[in-house]
Specification:
The protein has 178 residues and is α+β, with helices and mostly antiparallel strands. The chain contains six helices and twelve strands. The longest helix has 15 residues. The radius of gyration is 18 Å and the shape is elongated.
Length: 178
């Protein structure tokens, strides 16, 4: 299917889907399997690729449409070049594995796009430096995700050094008018 106005082609591709799920598992951990259960990846290829997870029951309906949908199902990720950028909506649809919990002041700063310091972290799961982590507030609500800059066992001993680099957060949409 192709929509000429926007040059976006929607398609299901089992080979790409397997590779995509594997990459999402690498980025967000094995908890992403929950989001993929009973769903297929629908690739919207244009200047960038957006990936949606749609119920398997409507796969044939989407495939037989005369025009392309604007979106379908759960927006899972944006693919720019070879870089997969998980959507923030995915964080609400997976079993969270690598988690950092922050207090109210740190929550506000994180939502303004700031990185987290060791003093911001109230609790974290067992982490290794370089892993992608989901940042949650004290009510366990996902705020966004970042990159752990150090292992969790030494996070608290670092004083005021940055320990999580902000990669994406809910406040981005407000800051950038999206």
């Amino acid at each position: 299917m192709m929509l000429l106005d926007y040059m976006i082609e929607f398609n299901f591709d089992a080979k790409r889907e397997e590779k995509f799920e594997s990459e999402m598992r690498r980025i967000l951990g094995p908890g992403v399997e929950k989001a993929f259960k009973g769903r297929r990846a629908l690739f919207a290829d244009g200047k960038i690729t957006e990936v949606f997870l749609v119920d398997k029951a409507i796969e044939k309906t989407v495939g037989s449409m005369k025009s392309n949908p604007y979106s379908a199902g759960l927006f899972a990720a944006k693919v720019v070049g070879k870089e997969v950028r998980p959507s923030l909506q995915m964080l609400h649809n997976i079993d969270l594995q690598n988690v950092v919990v922050v207090g109210p002041k740190a929550e506000q700063r994180f939502l303004y796009g700031k990185h987290l310091t060791s003093r911001d972290v109230i609790w974290s799961s067992s982490l290794l430096g370089g892993e992608t982590v989901v940042v949650c507030n004290g009510s366990d609500e996902p705020l966004g995700y970042g990159h752990a800059l150090t292992n969790s066992d030494i996070m608290k001993r670092l004083g005021n050094e940055e320990v999580v680099k902000n990669l994406d957060d809910l406040g981005w949409y407000l800051r950038h008018g999206g």
